[in-house]
Amino acid sequence: MEAFVVPTLIVALAEIGDKTQLLALVLAARYRKPWPIILGITVATLANHLAAGFLGHLVSELLSPATLAWILAASFVAVAAWALIPDKLDEDEARLGRRYGPFVATLIAFFIAEIGDKTQIATVMLAAQYDAFVLVILGTTLGMLLANIPVVLAGNFAANRLPLTLIRRLAALSFLLMALYAGYQAWQIGSL
Hints:
0% strand, mainly alpha, 84% helix, 10 helices, GDT1-like, membrane, transmembrane helix
Protein backbone atom coordinates (compact mmCIF):
# COMPACT_ATOMS: atom_id res chain seq x y z
CA MET A 1 0.00 0.00 0.00
CA GLU A 2 2.97 2.31 0.64
CA ALA A 3 3.86 2.04 -3.06
CA PHE A 4 0.49 3.67 -3.85
CA VAL A 5 0.09 6.19 -1.03
CA VAL A 6 3.59 7.70 -1.05
CA PRO A 7 3.64 8.39 -4.82
CA THR A 8 0.11 9.83 -4.63
CA LEU A 9 1.03 12.28 -1.88
CA ILE A 10 4.41 13.24 -3.29
CA VAL A 11 3.13 13.95 -6.80
CA ALA A 12 0.00 15.75 -5.54
CA LEU A 13 2.16 18.10 -3.46
CA ALA A 14 4.81 18.54 -6.17
CA GLU A 15 2.16 19.34 -8.78
CA ILE A 16 0.74 22.34 -6.89
CA GLY A 17 1.94 25.45 -8.73
CA ASP A 18 3.54 23.33 -11.49
CA LYS A 19 3.28 24.42 -15.12
CA THR A 20 0.81 21.64 -15.88
CA GLN A 21 -1.47 23.00 -13.19
CA LEU A 22 -1.22 26.41 -14.81
CA LEU A 23 -1.94 24.72 -18.13
CA ALA A 24 -5.06 23.10 -16.62
CA LEU A 25 -6.19 26.55 -15.51
CA VAL A 26 -5.65 28.03 -18.99
CA LEU A 27 -7.52 25.15 -20.64
CA ALA A 28 -10.40 25.39 -18.14
CA ALA A 29 -10.73 29.13 -18.72
CA ARG A 30 -10.53 28.72 -22.49
CA TYR A 31 -12.92 25.83 -23.04
CA ARG A 32 -15.15 25.84 -19.94
CA LYS A 33 -15.68 22.10 -20.48
CA PRO A 34 -14.12 20.36 -17.47
CA TRP A 35 -14.74 16.68 -18.33
CA PRO A 36 -12.83 16.53 -21.64
CA ILE A 37 -9.96 18.36 -19.91
CA ILE A 38 -9.98 15.95 -16.96
CA LEU A 39 -10.05 12.98 -19.35
CA GLY A 40 -7.16 14.47 -21.34
CA ILE A 41 -5.13 14.96 -18.14
CA THR A 42 -5.83 11.36 -17.11
CA VAL A 43 -4.85 9.78 -20.44
CA ALA A 44 -1.75 11.98 -20.89
CA THR A 45 -0.57 11.34 -17.33
CA LEU A 46 -1.08 7.59 -17.59
CA ALA A 47 0.87 7.46 -20.86
CA ASN A 48 3.67 9.69 -19.58
CA HIS A 49 3.98 8.00 -16.20
CA LEU A 50 3.86 4.51 -17.74
CA ALA A 51 6.91 5.44 -19.82
CA ALA A 52 8.61 6.97 -16.78
CA GLY A 53 7.73 3.94 -14.66
CA PHE A 54 9.19 1.54 -17.23
CA LEU A 55 12.40 3.55 -17.22
CA GLY A 56 12.53 3.46 -13.43
CA HIS A 57 11.88 -0.28 -13.41
CA LEU A 58 14.63 -0.81 -16.01
CA VAL A 59 17.11 1.27 -14.02
CA SER A 60 16.30 -0.71 -10.87
CA GLU A 61 17.20 -3.96 -12.66
CA LEU A 62 20.48 -2.64 -14.10
CA LEU A 63 21.97 -1.19 -10.93
CA SER A 64 22.89 -2.78 -7.64
CA PRO A 65 20.52 -2.04 -4.76
CA ALA A 66 23.15 0.09 -2.98
CA THR A 67 23.99 2.14 -6.09
CA LEU A 68 20.32 2.60 -6.86
CA ALA A 69 19.60 3.75 -3.30
CA TRP A 70 22.41 6.35 -3.43
CA ILE A 71 21.23 7.60 -6.84
CA LEU A 72 17.67 7.78 -5.53
CA ALA A 73 18.78 9.73 -2.47
CA ALA A 74 20.69 12.25 -4.61
CA SER A 75 17.80 12.51 -7.07
CA PHE A 76 15.29 13.13 -4.31
CA VAL A 77 17.51 15.93 -2.93
CA ALA A 78 17.67 17.50 -6.42
CA VAL A 79 13.89 17.27 -6.88
CA ALA A 80 13.38 18.71 -3.38
CA ALA A 81 15.36 21.79 -4.42
CA TRP A 82 13.52 21.93 -7.76
CA ALA A 83 10.15 21.82 -5.98
CA LEU A 84 10.96 25.16 -4.33
CA ILE A 85 11.20 26.94 -7.69
CA PRO A 86 7.85 28.18 -9.07
CA ASP A 87 6.99 27.11 -12.62
CA LYS A 88 5.76 29.39 -15.38
CA LEU A 89 3.58 28.34 -18.30
CA ASP A 90 5.40 28.27 -21.63
CA GLU A 91 3.75 30.40 -24.35
CA ASP A 92 3.75 27.47 -26.82
CA GLU A 93 1.83 25.33 -24.33
CA ALA A 94 -0.78 28.05 -23.90
CA ARG A 95 -1.16 28.42 -27.72
CA LEU A 96 -1.67 24.68 -28.17
CA GLY A 97 -4.79 24.89 -26.02
CA ARG A 98 -6.30 27.49 -28.35
CA ARG A 99 -5.76 25.43 -31.53
CA TYR A 100 -7.54 22.15 -30.73
CA GLY A 101 -10.59 20.97 -28.83
CA PRO A 102 -10.32 20.50 -25.06
CA PHE A 103 -9.54 16.76 -25.00
CA VAL A 104 -6.91 16.73 -27.78
CA ALA A 105 -5.33 19.99 -26.61
CA THR A 106 -5.12 18.72 -23.03
CA LEU A 107 -3.79 15.31 -24.06
CA ILE A 108 -1.01 16.74 -26.24
CA ALA A 109 -0.13 19.67 -23.99
CA PHE A 110 -0.04 17.64 -20.77
CA PHE A 111 2.00 14.84 -22.28
CA ILE A 112 4.57 17.28 -23.67
CA ALA A 113 4.62 19.46 -20.55
CA GLU A 114 5.30 16.44 -18.35
CA ILE A 115 8.38 15.33 -20.29
CA GLY A 116 11.34 16.02 -18.02
CA ASP A 117 9.10 17.63 -15.40
CA LYS A 118 9.73 17.02 -11.71
CA THR A 119 6.66 14.76 -11.39
CA GLN A 120 7.87 12.59 -14.28
CA ILE A 121 11.32 12.34 -12.71
CA ALA A 122 9.68 11.53 -9.38
CA THR A 123 7.76 8.75 -11.14
CA VAL A 124 11.02 7.31 -12.52
CA MET A 125 12.56 7.40 -9.03
CA LEU A 126 9.50 5.95 -7.29
CA ALA A 127 9.18 3.14 -9.85
CA ALA A 128 12.85 2.33 -9.27
CA GLN A 129 12.35 2.35 -5.51
CA TYR A 130 9.19 0.25 -5.23
CA ASP A 131 8.60 -3.21 -6.68
CA ALA A 132 4.87 -2.51 -7.17
CA PHE A 133 5.03 -0.92 -10.63
CA VAL A 134 1.26 -0.68 -11.20
CA LEU A 135 0.65 0.85 -7.76
CA VAL A 136 3.33 3.49 -8.35
CA ILE A 137 1.83 4.47 -11.73
CA LEU A 138 -1.69 4.57 -10.32
CA GLY A 139 -0.45 6.59 -7.34
CA THR A 140 1.46 9.17 -9.37
CA THR A 141 -1.48 9.49 -11.77
CA LEU A 142 -3.91 9.95 -8.88
CA GLY A 143 -1.57 12.58 -7.41
CA MET A 144 -1.68 14.51 -10.70
CA LEU A 145 -5.46 14.30 -10.75
CA LEU A 146 -5.80 15.36 -7.11
CA ALA A 147 -3.80 18.49 -7.87
CA ASN A 148 -5.32 19.32 -11.26
CA ILE A 149 -9.00 18.39 -11.09
CA PRO A 150 -9.83 21.07 -8.47
CA VAL A 151 -8.12 23.67 -10.69
CA VAL A 152 -10.14 22.57 -13.69
CA LEU A 153 -13.40 22.53 -11.73
CA ALA A 154 -12.91 25.67 -9.70
CA GLY A 155 -10.85 27.59 -12.24
CA ASN A 156 -9.29 30.82 -11.12
CA PHE A 157 -10.96 30.82 -7.72
CA ALA A 158 -8.95 27.92 -6.29
CA ALA A 159 -5.64 28.67 -7.99
CA ASN A 160 -5.45 32.24 -6.70
CA ARG A 161 -6.15 31.28 -3.09
CA LEU A 162 -3.77 28.36 -2.54
CA PRO A 163 -0.69 29.04 -0.38
CA LEU A 164 1.70 28.01 -3.16
CA THR A 165 4.89 28.82 -1.27
CA LEU A 166 3.84 26.65 1.66
CA ILE A 167 2.77 23.84 -0.65
CA ARG A 168 6.07 23.97 -2.56
CA ARG A 169 7.94 23.80 0.76
CA LEU A 170 5.87 20.78 1.85
CA ALA A 171 6.61 19.08 -1.47
CA ALA A 172 10.33 19.82 -1.05
CA LEU A 173 10.21 18.44 2.50
CA SER A 174 8.51 15.27 1.22
CA PHE A 175 11.24 14.75 -1.36
CA LEU A 176 13.92 15.47 1.25
CA LEU A 177 12.39 12.86 3.58
CA MET A 178 12.41 10.37 0.71
CA ALA A 179 16.09 11.25 0.13
CA LEU A 180 16.90 10.57 3.78
CA TYR A 181 15.06 7.27 3.64
CA ALA A 182 16.84 6.25 0.42
CA GLY A 183 20.17 7.29 1.96
CA TYR A 184 19.41 5.21 5.04
CA GLN A 185 18.58 2.24 2.81
CA ALA A 186 21.83 2.73 0.87
CA TRP A 187 23.80 2.85 4.11
CA GLN A 188 22.04 -0.29 5.39
CA ILE A 189 22.75 -2.17 2.15
CA GLY A 190 26.37 -1.02 2.15
CA SER A 191 26.95 -2.15 5.74
CA LEU A 192 25.65 -5.70 5.14
